[in-house]
Specification:
By secondary structure, the chain is of the alpha+beta class. Among the domains are: about 110 residues, Ku70, Chain: A, Domain 2; about 70 residues, no CATH class. About 20% of the residues lie in helices and about 30% in strands. The chain is built from five helices and 13 strands. A hairpin with a 2-residue loop joins strand 10 and strand 11.
């Protein structure tokens, strides 16, 4: 079983639920090492002090915060530990919310909350309450030297926790969401909806996979065993669409699938 990243309590009024948090999902990719091309040996990075002009060891390293150019205030981990708030060991539920009120852009990292044996009944009570009421909980927890606001929700017969970004962490990007001032024709919207309707189907995450990583694995295996290297992928040549009507009609025709109504396939209107 993976190592827990946090141990403490979920506080629900006077009820305390002892839990451990485990990472629920993490980005996965093929990792490459830096190799000295000449001899094939893996190179190693060293910590170098330009002032003393020598390599320093890990036990010589301290944490410092830059208060001015090249001026740092050193902080000891023990000093930081004394400042940890109550949320470092207890997550107090501050409120309940409807999950659809929380925009997904705020979601960051996911964790599974596993109850300790002594808190199994209290955990089950909280889970059932949230499932019956169809609500999620807002709480705070301190992890990795940061106090995070989190959302706790029911998922697959258990409680899942998501850290969320603070509003000031959501960036404003110039031009995003601005109206280009180009009015869409009703017929263009109708055709776009017809094409989109043909693509609607139940969400099944198992049907999606990282094809690039699969090709990289084949490349590594081929080079290792002296086999034939996989063919290069030719990217599609795309350009901005000028004639929306023509592009939509061709998209519908090439898709070859019309949406079904009452189990009967119906013909899409393209004019």
């Amino acid at each position: 079983m993976p190592q827990s990243v946090w141990k403490g309590f979920i506080s629900f009024g006077l009820i305390s639920v002892p839990i451990r948090l485990y990472a629920a999902a993490r980005y996965s990719h093929i990792a490459f090492h830096e190799i000295h091309r000449e001899c094939g040996t893996r190179v190693r990075q060293q910590l170098y002090c330009p002032y003393d002009k020598r390599v320093v060891s890990r036990d010589e390293i301290a944490m410092g915060y830059e208060v001015a150019e090249d001026k740092y205030v050193l902080v000891d981990p023990a000093e930081l530990k004394k400042l940890q708030p109550e949320s470092s060991t207890a997550m107090e539920i501050l409120q309940f919310v409807k999950l659809d009120e929380v925009d997904p852009i705020y979601f960051e990292t996911s964790y599974f909350a596993i109850p300790e044996e002594a808190g199994a009944r209290a955990y089950a009570l909280l889970l059932k309450t949230m499932m019956d009421m169809k609500v999620a909980a807002i709480a705070k927890v301190t992890m990795h030297q940061r106090e995070r606001t989190v959302i706790i929700r029911a998922y697959d017969k258990g409680l899942t926790l998501h850290t969320i970004f603070y509003p000031n962490e959501i960036h404003d990007v110039k031009g995003y969401g601005s109206d280009a001032g180009k009015e869409l024709k009703k017929q263009e919207v109708t055709l776009a909806e017809q094409f989109a309707t043909a693509l609607i189907k139940p969400f099944d995450p198992k049907q999606y996979r990282d094809e690039y990583q699969e090709r990289v694995k084949k490349l590594i295996e081929s080079k290792d065993k002296g086999g034939v290297l996989p063919e290069a992928v030719k990217p599609r040549k795309l350009a901005p669409v000028i004639d929306l009507m023509s592009a939509l009609k061709k998209s519908i025709e090439s898709n070859g699938k019309a949406p079904k109504k009452n189990g009967v396939q119906r013909k899409l209107k393209t004019a």
